[in-house]
Specification:
Largest sheet: none
Number of domains: 2
Distance between the termini: 19 Å
Shape: globular
Radius of gyration: 23 Å
Number of helices: 15
Helix content: over 70%
Strand content: under 5%
Number of strands: 0
Length: 436
C-alpha cells in the first residue's frame, strides 16, 4: 500500500495543506475554558489595578502556551502516533497552571510554592510542544539543529525570569514592592517570548494549513465568548435569590451584548479575512500575517472580552440583589471595565481587519468614540440604564453595518457559500468513489 503521509519518530504524521482541526485539539481547548474562567474569577475577587495587572499577565502567559500548541498542531497531526500522550501531559500542565492562578504571585503557606508551580508547568508545556515540533522538523528533513537552538532558547530564558519572580515573595519585600518586582519579571519573560515569536516567523515556524490555522483561532475566541456567557450567569446568581425584573432585563441586555460581539467578529470580517489569508502569498509573508493578525491581535480581543465579563458580572450581581435601589449607579470599576473592554475588543478587531484586509470600517471607529463618550455618563446613571446604554451602542453598530455594508455582505456570503458548496461536492464525490 502506498504511503500517503510522512511518518516520523513515534508515529508522528505531518500535516498537509488543507488539513482541518482534529477532535483532540478541541478537547485540549477544554482546559482553556477553565483557565479563562479562573482568570476571571480570581480577578473579580480582587478588582483593583493590581488584580487586573496580575490577571492580564497570567492570560498573556497562557495565551503564548496555547500559541505554542497551535504552531505544533499546524505541523503535526496531534491525534496520531505518540502525539496524544504529549497532548494529554500538556493539558494536565495547563490545568495545574489554571488551578495555581490564585497563587501565581502570592504563596499561601501549607502547600506547594504557588509562584514556582506556574513556571515549572509553563516550561513543561513549551518543552512538550517544541520537542514534538523538533521531531517533525527532522521528519520533514529540515535543518533541525539550528531550529532547535532558536526555538528552545526563548522559553528557557522566559522560565528563568518567571522563577526569579517566584522567588521574590520569599525575600522579605513589602507586598507592594514584591508585586512590582514580580510584574517586572513577568513582563520581561513575556517580552522574550513575544519578541522571539515575532523574529522567528518564517524561520522557526510556518503555516502549513491555512484552514486549520484560522479555524483554531475562531474556536478559541468562541471559548472566550463562552466565558462571557458564564460570567452573565455567575453575576445573575439566582440560585438562592428570587427572580426579579431588573435581573431579567439585565441578563437580556448582557446576552444582547454577547450576541453583538459574536456578530461583529463572525458575520463579515472573519469570512473576508479567511479568503484574504488563503489568497496571501505562501512562505514568510503568510507566516507574518498569521503571526500579526491571529497570534498577536487575538490576545487583546480575548483580554477585552474578559474585561467585559468582569464588568457585566459586577453589574448583574447588583441588579440581582433583592430590594435593589434601581436609581443607584454601580459601585466600583464595573462600568468602566465593561465599556473599556468592549472598546479594546473593537480596536483590536479593527487592527485585525487592517492587517488582513487593508481596510478600516468607519462605523466601528465611531462606535469606539461613542463608548469613550458614553462611559462617563454610564458611571453616573442607574445600573440598568448603564447596561442598556452599552447594549444600545452594540445594537446600533450592528444595525448600521447591516445597512451600510449590505452590498459587501451579500457578495461575501455568496462567495463563501460557493466555496463551501464546491468543497462539499468534491468531498462527496471522493466518498462515492472510495466506498462504492
Amino acid at each position: 500500500m502506498k504511503r500517503i503521509e510522512q511518518v516520523g519518530p513515534g508515529g508522528l504524521h505531518l500535516v498537509r495543506p488543507g488539513a482541518r482541526v482534529d477532535r483532540l485539539e478541541i478537547f485540549f481547548d477544554l482546559v482553556y475554558v477553565f483557565a479563562f474562567y479562573n482568570i476571571t474569577r480570581v480577578t473579580a475577587g480582587e478588582l483593583t489595578g493590581r488584580g487586573l495587572i496580575a490577571g492580564m499577565l497570567v492570560l498573556a502567559l497562557l495565551w503564548w502556551a496555547w500559541c505554542s500548541h497551535m504552531v505544533l498542531a499546524n505541523r503535526v497531526r496531534v491525534g496520531e502516533g505518540s502525539a496524544p500522550l504529549a497532548m494529554f501531559m500538556a493539558m494536565a500542565a495547563v490545568f495545574i497552571t489554571s488551578l495555581s492562578i490564585p497563587q501565581a504571585f502570592i504563596d499561601e503557606p501549607g502547600g506547594l510554592p504557588g509562584p514556582l508551580v506556574v513556571p515549572c508547568c509553563y516550561l513543561l508545556i513549551r518543552g512538550l510542544h517544541l520537542t514534538l515540533y523538533w521531531f517533525a522538523a527532522r521528519t520533514a528533513q529540515e535543518a533541525a539543529r539550528p531550529r532547535w537552538l532558536r526555538l528552545f532558547t526563548p522559553p528557557l530564558l522566559a522560565t528563568s525570569l518567571l522563577v526569579v519572580a517566584g522567588l521574590i515573595p520569599y525575600h522579605g519585600f513589602a507586598p507592594d514592592t514584591a508585586f512590582r518586582l514580580q510584574a517586572a519579571c513577568w513582563l520581561a519573560a513575556l517580552a522574550v517570548e513575544y519578541a522571539a515569536g515575532f523574529a522567528l516567523a518564517g524561520k522557526g515556524w510556518a503555516v502549513l494549513s491555512a484552514n486549520h490555522w484560522v479555524e483554531r483561532f475562531e474556536l478559541i475566541l468562541m471559548v472566550a465568548l463562552g466565558e462571557l456567557i458564564i460570567s452573565i450567569g455567575v453575576g445573575s446568581d439566582l440560585i438562592d435569590r428570587p427572580i426579579t425584573w431588573p435581573a431579567v432585563f439585565g441578563a437580556g441586555f448582557a446576552v444582547a451584548v454577547t450576541a453583538a460581539v459574536w456578530w461583529l467578529y463572525f458575520d463579515l470580517v472573519a469570512p473576508a479575512a479567511v479568503q484574504a489569508f488563503h489568497a496571501s502569498a505562501h512562505g514568510e509573508p503568510r507566516t507574518r500575517l498569521a503571526r500579526d493578525a491571529y497570534a498577536y491581535l487575538h490576545l487583546p480581543m480575548i483580554a477585552g472580552l474578559i474585561l467585559v465579563a468582569l464588568g457585566m458580572e459586577e453589574v448583574l450581581h447588583q441588579l440581582g440583589t433583592p430590594d435593589i435601589d434601581l436609581a443607584a449607579p454601580v459601585d466600583g470599576p464595573a462600568v468602566p471595565l465593561a465599556f473599556g473592554g468592549l472598546a479594546l475588543f473593537l480596536l483590536s478587531h479593527l487592527g485585525f481587519q487592517l492587517r488582513t484586509l487593508g481596510t478600516v470600517t468607519g462605523s466601528r471607529v465611531v462606535a469606539i468614540a461613542g463608548l469613550a463618550v458614553t462611559a462617563p455618563v454610564a458611571v453616573r446613571i442607574p445600573a440598568l440604564a448603564g447596561l442598556a446604554l452599552l447594549t444600545g451602542v452594540c445594537v446600533c453598530l450592528v444595525l448600521a453595518e447591516l445597512v451600510l455594508l449590505s452590498g459587501s455582505r451579500r457578495r461575501l456570503r455568496r462567495e463563501s457559500l460557493r466555496e463551501r458548496l464546491t468543497h462539499e461536492a468534491r468531498e462527496s464525490a471522493w466518498r462515492r468513489r472510495r466506498y462504492r
